[in-house]
Structure formats: C-alpha cells, structure tokens
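Notes, p. 3: input format for complexes.
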Amino acid sequence: MKVQDVSNLINEWAPLAYAEDFDNVGLLVGDPHQEVSNILVSHDALENVVDEAIAKNCNLIVCFHPIIFSGLKRLTASNYVQKVVQKAIKNDIAIFAIHTALDNVEHGVNFGMCKALNLSNTKILSPKQHHIYKLTTYVPHASVKSVTDSLFRAGAGSIGNYEECSFEAKGQGSFKGNENSNPIIGSRGTKHIEPETQVHLTFEKHLKSKILQTLFENHPYEEVAYEITSLENTLQNVGMGMIGQLDKEMSELEFLAFAKDQFKTGGIRHSQLLGKPVKKIAVLGGSGAFAIKSAKAQGADVLVTSDLKYHDYYQAESRILLCDVGHYESERYTKNLICDYLTEKISTFAIILSEENTNPINYF
Ligand SMILES: [Zn+2]
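Output follows (364 residues plus zinc ion):
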C-alpha cells in the first residue's frame, strides 16, 4: 500500500474538501508513491514524533494538526517547523494532516468530545454553508434513466438519509447544429424540436468534476446543455461543533467536575456560574470562540471548547456557561479515532498510536 492509498482511505472518511479554507490539510511532506512500512498516528508532528517514527519503523505520520500551516520560505532548520520537515525528508518519512476535515464530519473530533461527555441526540452545531450545488440538465426522454442513474452512482442526489433524490419536468428543447456539428438526433443545419426532460439533482461541491465528467460520458448529446448553481442551503451533517444532551441534568459544579475528569485537564477556565442545572451541551474541539453565538442561539446551557480570550467570556451574557478545557485536552480523543479507523481499514502493516505528549501547555 502506498502513501496515496492511505490518503484515499482517509479522504473517504474525512473528505479533505470539508476542511476550512484557511487550513492546510492532506499530504504535507513526502512522496505519494512511496510504499508505506507502518503508520504512526499523532496529534502533532513534532521532532520527537519524527524520532518516534524512525524508532518504530514508520515512514508515514498521520497527524491531526498540520505542521506546515502558513507556508515555508526556506528550509534551514532554523525553527521547530523547519527542523521537523527537514528531518522527515532526510528519513523518507511522509506527513499527512487531517485537521478541520475531521473537525467537520459527524464522526470526528467533536464526536469524540460528545462521547467523552455521554451526550445523546447529537447533531452538528454550525452546519457548513455554500457546499451544495444543483445540477440542471436536459435529457431526451429515452435517456433519462441511464443519465440520472449514472449521476446517482457518482454521488449526486443524496440529501441527509435519502439517496437518489431528483426532480424531473417534461418539456421540449430546440437546437440547430452548424456545419461542424454531428447531432445524434435531427440533422445539421435544420432546427430540431425534441421532447426532453429537465432533470434537477443536488450534489456536494467537491464532487463537481466527477459529476460533470459523468454527465458528459452518459448524456447522449454532442453538446450537453446544463447549469450548475450554488445553493444557500446548509449541509446538515457536515460542519463545526456538535450539540447534544446529557442523560440527566447536572448542576454547573457537577458538570465542571465531570468535564475536568473526562478531558483530563489541569483546569477549566469558565464564565460566571448561572446557578441553574445544565443539560444541553455544545462542544467544539480546538479554538472555538467563534461558536459562542451558535451555541447560544441553539439554547445550549454550556459550550465546551478552548482558547477563549478575556473578552470572549463576556459573550456568555448570563445565558450560557462557557468552558475552556484546554486546546489539546478538547481534542485528546482525536488520535484514537484516526488510529481506530486506519486499523479497521488496513491489515497489512501496523498502525501505531504515538506515545509522545505534544501538548505544549502545562498547568501549575
Ligand atoms: Zn487544534
């Protein structure tokens, strides 16, 4: 199995197209055609993790955070990022980062947090916008089934728990080919009227080239008439954060003690206690101040996240308990999720969970 094959497997589980625009995910270092010996799974790819990979005969590190985030202009081992990249290259070790691609799926980082807090009835807190496209095309009646079936197979027509969703309307199309045309119906130079079906299907943005290729391969016309439009609808099962419910109400202090224990954190920084029981809990692994508004809008009693600044706590406005459990701590179950998935999918070599602690923050 090559690095590219592992990359494809990860892409099926946490599509890189779901990553945020600011992010830098995928294969960051290494040759996609290199055969994989073993995989080391880590939260961060630091120099000690590269050393661990060398010691454990792993030539691919699959990590959560991207070690290269804002670009590299030189490779002179003058800072920790350059040292990692240089050492990895010297030792033929590839580095693959998942980051927000895994933040944005239902079974990712925030699923790990929900599981740690035993939340039920979970759903995405901030569903992804501008991610759904609609294809409209015009097909002669006899070819409607073969064209729509091929588009369904390519991933179009999925809405939530439903597949093969489409809408059809019958009408008629007209066309007149020039001297260079080669029409399959009618003849060049003569206007032709053909009974056609207008077919509408939605699909996810990252499937665009696959959907178009499928359309062109399966539509009978020489020139295919089609439109693609971007929809304002949100993708309900993809997005940042999750929200769910505790089985039983807890007091705020009981919840803080529970969360401190579950996330194994040295301390929780929190907003003012409101003196009311908590049940509805929003979570967002990593830096999550941007989710305060959504959590409040959805009536969450608590938001568990990290990297909250002084002024962020004011946004609680006596409506929600904001909890900063620590960045690493909020994402601490992520590497286990990655390891479990790769172990389930790959049996020809070892998937090893890193033993290195990469949390840069300590508590006194
Ligand atoms: Zn993070």
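The radius of gyration is 25 Å.
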